[in-house]
Amino acid sequence: MAEAEEKETRSNEESTDDSEEDESEEEPKLKYERLSNGVTEILQKDAASCMTVHEKFLALGTHYGKVYLLDVQGNITQKVEISPVKINQISLDESGEHMGICSEDGKVQVFGLYSGEEFHETFDCPIKIVAVHPQFVRSHYKQFVTGGKKLLLYEKSWMNRWKPSVLHEGEGNIRNVKWRGQFIAWANNMGVKILDVISKQRITNVPRNDISLRPDMYPCSLCWKNNLTLIIGWGNSVKICSIKERHASDMRDLPSRYVEIMFQFDTEFYISGLAPLCDQLVVLSYVKEVSEKTEKECCARPRLDIIQPLPESCEEISSDALTVRGFQENECRDYRLEHSEGESLFYIISPRDIVVAKERDQDDHIDWLLEKKKYEEALMAAEISQKTIKKHRILDIGLAYINHLVEKGEYDLAARKCQKILGKNTELWEFEVYKFKEIGQLKAISPYLPRRDPVLKPLIYEMVLHEFLESDYEGFAILIKEWPGDLYNNKSIVQVVVDHLNKDPQNRTLLRTLAELYIYDQRYGKALEIYLTLRHKEVFQLIHKHNLFSSIRDKIVMLMDFDSEKAVDMLLDNEDKISIDKVVEELENRPELQHVYLHKLFKRDHHKGQRYHEKQISLYAEYDRPNLLPFLRDSTHCPLEKALEICQQRNFVEETVYLLSRMGNSRSALKMIMEELHDVDKAIEFAKEQDDGELWEDLILYSIDKPPFITGLLNNIGTHVDPILLIHRIKEGMEIPNLRDSLVKILQDYNLQILLREGCKKILVADSLSLLKKMHRTQMKGVRVDEENICESCLSPVLPSDASKPFSVTVFHCRHMFHKECLPVPSTMSPLLFCNICSAKHRGPGSAILEMKK
Q1: Could you name the domain of life of the organism this protein comes from (predicted)?
Q2: How many of the other CB atoms lie within 10 Å of CB of 239?
Q3: What is the pLDDT of residue 13?
Q4: The sheet that has 353-359: what strands, in order across it?
Q5: Beta-bridge mates of residue 19
Q6: Nearest 5 degrees, angle CA 780-CA 785-CA 791?
Q7: How are strands ordered across the β-sheet holding 48-53?
Q8: What pLDDT, in 10s, does the model give residues 234-274?
Q9: Are strands 848-853 and 817-819 parallel, antiparallel or unpaired?
Q10: What share of the chain is helix, strand, coil (3-state, %, to 5)?
Q11: Gap between the Cα atoms of 77 and 56, Å rounded
Q12: Among residues 171, 271, 174, which one has the least CA distance to residue 218?
């Protein structure tokens, strides 16, 4: 704030922020405002000399001896005229109901704001300080101290008289005093003393560091952080003292408490006041600087610093230069710093001005971020603290952020932020879209337009599509694919695309997009035509999804040309919609495609396309010979004569051999193998398959004069034909390759057969013995006979109803039961009895296992 502000209107002065800081990226910790209203009126005619702060009100003393009670906004609530001269000190108890005042003419008054009790005294010297007991409102604590040349403690006696007692004298004027709990701290010309009021013991003396400074010009600043921690600022030195209990063993004649200096450091400037802020300090400093014009030392703007104390030094957290009125004429003693503990408010008092400093809240933090154009951080801070901020709205910050990004030319980022910031507000969305249109950046915002909840007006989407259609076909195609078809007027967009295709009919991107538009409009036939023209990979999905089989009856060849495998699978999966006969008919002029279809049909079901098996013989022979033989083997419907004719015409030996053998002409098939293929192994395999002795004889006769064939027979014949038959026919002197190995193999095969037989015999004998033992155990078991069992011959119960009568029952191992008299009489040739039922069913006769008689 410049010096010229003094000449501006008072109202403007009071509405502006009175703190200025150097341009930097570091955010200030405090914010400032002038205490105005009644204070402005007071300081126009008078000058502030002192002030004390209570959480409910303020008390301001002036150089003309008046005391004003103010509310926290600076409005005057009460005025008290004390003296015609300067008010030196005002003291309030914790309740804010009692006040002590002292003035330069020696007057001291202690009175109740809401009661009649008063103390009036005029001393013969200026009284610099007064302090009432923090609990003065209570009857047991009616005490206060005054300080001039000596420190006096006044206590109310039992007769309601004030009794003074001298606490200290002889070290110059008392310059400052602070009372907290049971401790009084005061400063004189020599240093700072602390007294325990209860024990009346002086605890310590803290001497001042720089005795060269005049104590009246650079007064001591005292402040209690809590009941046991005192902060002392004098000159440029700061000391933080802690009151501690002395151990009983160290007491002797010493006070029960002592003071330990926890932190001690020097500051750059002279201290005019200090106050605690959590674990930090707020320090008001008096600054002198050399004028550039006169080159003389002059008073500069005071500074309010936040300092972090360290054991032997300090760290400056923030520093603000304050432009208070008349700062050029002020001295160090003219400034005071008072604070309100409950709200972290700091009052900077000067003769012509009072400035209030307070911790910056989240609204202030956001203000600073917006001022520095840190919109992203401001938006994040607002979202985190949306329940506590009062001044800002997240939406307003977001809109400012979008505008800022647009101004910087970061259109894509601005468009991306629209999603989060605009949310579901359709009006704001449409406003932003038009704004992007004005700057020619519709393409930037298009990917982020809402598509569901909310949905904008169709005109918005159509406007974006037209923009792409004029300059970017690929981008247009992407939007059509991604956007639901109900966002815009589909028919109008189709017409525009058709107009563009009239100019560029071969444009594949536009054709593909037009097909998708037709699909949205449920004109699947037109979409199918375009897909087939483009050979689009999704043509089959389109057919399936929308059941377009009736539309592809005359397009089967096109589908097969595009992807025969997918086309065949689709046709076979939907035979009920497009018959096999229809497909074969459509593919009549494309036999290679016809073969692909019929081949897959045959693989799925050997019988469905049986009427085309004869046709398939020629198709396999022409386009797929490797699958001809498997087809001939699996098909039971192809005409063998026709197949044989085709195979013989094309000289397909393997297929001809198979057909000959299948038609019963095995000898001709074997002959063809030996004469055409010259493959002894295949001939032997064929003979094995047929298992015909005559074929083996033919094979031996054909091979007898061919040593390689003889070798093959010797190696493979052993398990089917007696090798001796072949060996006897070999001419003497014929050289046979690997004869020895072949003979060894024959012997090995023979030995193997012997071993197998012996092994089988052992297994058979063991199994027989095991089963015999099992049968024996089973037959040795008893059989339960009761009233429910009947005779299998006469069908009456085997047991008589009268148990006393004699009876005789025969039970067989097959569990059939008979009365003995119901069985036939055994012959003399075969005395054994057999079950009539099992013998009649040829299940093997059962012999009697039990005969019951009584």
Answers
A1: Eukaryota
A2: 20
A3: 37
A4: 30-34, 353-359, 345-350, 336-340
A5: 322
A6: 110
A7: 48-53, 58-62, 66-70, 76-81
A8: 999 999 999 999 887 777 778 888 999 999 999 989 999 99
A9: unpaired
A10: 40, 25, 35
A11: 12
A12: 271
Residue with tokens 């205490």: 35
Residue 436: both structure tokens together: 């992007």
Sheet holding 98-103, edge to edge: 87-92, 98-103, 107-112, 118-122
Is the confidence at residue 138, as pLDDT, over 70? yes
Render the burial of 447-463: b for 16+ CB within 10 Å, e for the rest. Answer: ebbbeeeebbeeebbbb
Rg (CA), the chain: 59
Q: pLDDT averaged over the chain?
A: 84
The pLDDT value recorded for residue 9 is 35
pLDDT in tens, 657-677: 778 778 877 777 777 777 777
Question: Long-range contacts: 470-474, Cβ < 8 Å, 24+?
Answer: 472/443, 473/507, 473/509, 473/510, 473/513, 474/509
pLDDT number for residue 1: 36
Partnered with residue 321 across adjacent β-strands are: 20, 303
The pLDDT of residue 836 is above 70: yes
Cα dihedral across residues 13, 17, 22, 24: positive or negative: negative
Q: Summarize the confidence of residues 564-580 as an average pLDDT.
A: 87
**DSSP letter at 677?**
I
pLDDT tens per residue, range 3-20: 333 333 333 333 334 444
Q: Is the dihedral of CA 557, 559, 564, 565 positive or negative?
A: negative
Cβ neighbours of 744 (radius 10 Å): 11
* Tokens 């408490």 -> residue: 257
Per-residue pLDDT tens over the stretch 361-373: 898 898 889 988 8
Alpha-carbon gap, residue 141 to 638, rounded angstroms:
126
Handedness of CA 703, 708, 710, 715 (dihedral sign): negative
Q: Give dist(CA 482, CA 137) in Å, integer.
A: 77
- pLDDT for the residue numbered 716: 64
The kind and range of the H/E element at 512 are helix 508-520
Distance CA 684, CA 670 (A): 9
For residue 718, the model assigns a pLDDT of: 55
Largest CA distance in the chain: 168
pTM for the whole structure:
0.58
Greater pLDDT, 336 or 707: 336
Cβ atoms of 541 and 516 closer than 8 Å: no
d(CA 99, CA 111): 6
